[in-house]
What does this fold into?
Amino acid sequence: MTDLLYRIIFTFFFALFWVIRIYYVGKTRDPQEPRSRAERRAAMKQEGWTGIFLIALTPVELILIVLFLWSPSWMSWADLLFPFWFYWIGIGVLFCSMLLMIWAHRTLGQHYSYAL
It folds into this structure.
């Protein structure tokens, strides 16, 4: 698999992940009862350090992914050499995880929450 093809497939699945996530978060929010700032703060306090790390590391994750997609040479410090077939296994696992995520969101329906 060429590097360009892998980046295209990765970008597609990355975008699909966020489209699915945003769709289900929007579907479960009640526009008549928006969460107040105090409620959001209380939910974050209940999450503890895990929530703080997730909020702090999400922008870092997005920046690293954009750097990888824009110019993989910038991320050469994290380069691992795998056999050709290993990339296809990774794409298969990624595809299966997307199916699992869709199933989980659909199964939870209105009970889904982006904050545990």
Observations:
- The mean pLDDT is 81.
- The CA atoms of residues 12 and 108 lie 25 Å apart.
